Amino acid sequence: MLGMAMSTMSRARLERRLARCFSSATSATGKLSVLCFLGTTRNDGPPFPTRVGSRVAAYSASLLKKHGHAVEVVDPLELDLPLLRKPEFAYQRGEQPKVLSELAEAIRSADAFVMISPEYNHTASPALLNTLNHFGSSIFSYKPSAICTYSQGQWGGARAAVALRPILSELGCLPVSAMIHVPAAHTVFDEHGSLIKEESDWEQYFMRTFSQMEWWAMAAKNHKVLQDPFSLSPALKRQPSQRNAPK
Ligand SMILES: Cc1cc2nc3c(=O)[nH]c(=O)nc-3n(C[C@H](O)[C@H](O)[C@H](O)COP(=O)(O)O)c2cc1C
């Protein structure tokens, strides 16, 4: 009897939490807060004096906004972070440089990430990795990411994309299976991020990846109301050896 009463109570509690959770979703897909990390600081040519990546970022942001999401682009040229000296998490709380504490807060409050990288020497861009390396995985984790690579060549940065997968997995923002690769990106988008050929299939192609990201982000956001992921797998805050298998 006691067991039955308790299971009835916990079901009622679960139903209340689920009701709260679903009323907090703004629609079937919901509005998400998405951070797009841009991976280029190149600011001179030839052949292009302006970055091709800013075109890809502008197009990505406009598509996500069109689908109701709040979007910020993290631009390493504006951030102007040095090559990593000291990551944000290594500072005493309250003593982090403003640029790092503000970006940490933006990462913490985001629901999903889009990683936009050129391919440099067959791998992901150092500017993107340098930005990511300034932050610990706990503020990225339990949120999905989407990989979007581009190049002026014919492979669209596919090798950079493959290199990004393990990095994003380590950060805990698992990349969705569909990826975006834009070959000859300078011929696809103009300098404002608009499609050069409007009647093309690029929107559908980008949205296949973004829709996967959206689905996982909503699922994660809703489930966090029911279960704090860090209560099951706390962030590792002391030594890298905390990750080690037992001896
Ligand atoms: C250092 C460097 C390495 C590059 N390596 C590659 C490469 O491996 N594969 C490729 O397709 N394009 C490569 N490119 C050409 C880029 O696709 C092209 O410069 C592109 O515009 C870079 O993006 P961005 O303009 O946003 O910086 C490379 C360019 C640079 C500057």
UniProtKB/TrEMBL annotation:
Gene3D superfamilies: 3.40.50.360. Pfam families: FMN_red (PF03358). GO terms for cellular component: cytosol. Residues 34-184 form the NADPH-dependent FMN reductase-like domain. It comes from the Eukaryota. GO terms for molecular function: FMN binding; oxidoreductase activity. InterPro entries: Flavoprotein-like_sf, FMN_Rdtase-like_dom, NAD(P)H-dep_reductase. PANTHER family: CHROMATE REDUCTASE, NAD(P)H-DEPENDENT FMN REDUCTASE LOT6. This is Azr protein. It comes from Symbiodinium natans. The gene is azr.
